[in-house]
Write a structure and sequence with these properties.
Blueprint (H helix, E strand, L loop, with lengths): L2 E6 L4 H10 L3 E7 L10 E5 L16 E6 L14 H22 L3 E10 L2 H4 L6 H21 L3 E8 L14 H9 L9 H12 L10 E4 L10
Parallel strand pairs: 1-2, 1-4, 2-3, 4-5, 5-6, 6-7
The structure holds NADP nicotinamide-adenine-dinucleotide phosphate.
Amino acid sequence: MKRNIVLIGGSYGIGLSIVKQLRESCTIYVASRSTEGLEGYNVKHIPFDALTDSLDLSLLPEEIHGFVYCPGSINLKPLKMLSLANFEEDMQLNFFSMVRVVKDIIGRMADNSSMVFFSTVAVSTGMPFHTSVSAAKGAIEGFVKSLAAEYSPKVRINVIAPSLVDTPLAARLLNNDRKKDSMAERHPLKRVGNPEDIANMAEFLLSDKSGWITGQVIGVDGGLSTLNIN
Ligand SMILES: NC(=O)c1ccc[n+]([C@@H]2O[C@H](COP(=O)([O-])OP(=O)(O)OC[C@H]3O[C@@H](n4cnc5c(N)ncnc54)[C@H](OP(=O)(O)O)[C@@H]3O)[C@@H](O)[C@H]2O)c1
């Protein structure tokens, strides 16, 4: 029997890469606002806005073997340019909407299932202008560690903390060669990430090959969080 994988987001970016990697071996459900990159893939699409909608559980399988929450933000500004409303918006999309979905689907997670969430390298490595997104992603890291303890051994729950990845979300940071080169240069591995770099880790965490890994925040970041090459 094919495993049921549910992605919130998955119509483009890292989520779409996960869809492409798992589409042969799994039955995939994508809940997102658009179907942008999903044409031609055998995916069950659920129209869904995480900010406003409740997930229609009648459209999901009774048993979920893998879950991924993709929506996120990169709202980089100096603190004095960030309003409280900006912090609330980042918290809403990254954290509160995620918690609402998790509360809805957690009862359907199967024995030996896996959940994957996204943080950012900026939580562990302080970076200027990241206060809002780091706070929202830091909340995810704390939430996931506690949730992993609560649902162990039934469900494994982990976080991927990427550095900059070339997706629509990061387009403004990579929209010319000068920016691309300077961002690549900051990383010990001398390039920014591509969606497949992150999807490879998500695929691993969703599979039984990671069967003894839970409650972890795993950096996929070109070495940025751990190596000082300057
Ligand atoms: N890209 C990076 O440099 C980077 C770095 C660090 C961390 N991350 C994190 O990695 C995760 C994935 O990033 P990404 O770059 O792949 O993002 P992305 O390119 O913006 O893709 C996000 C996906 O989530 C869906 N989505 C966004 N808002 C939604 C909403 N309100 N309701 C339902 N679906 C929604 C989008 O589909 P629709 O628009 O069709 O709804 C899309 O499929 C995010 O949590 C991000 O914070 C990314």
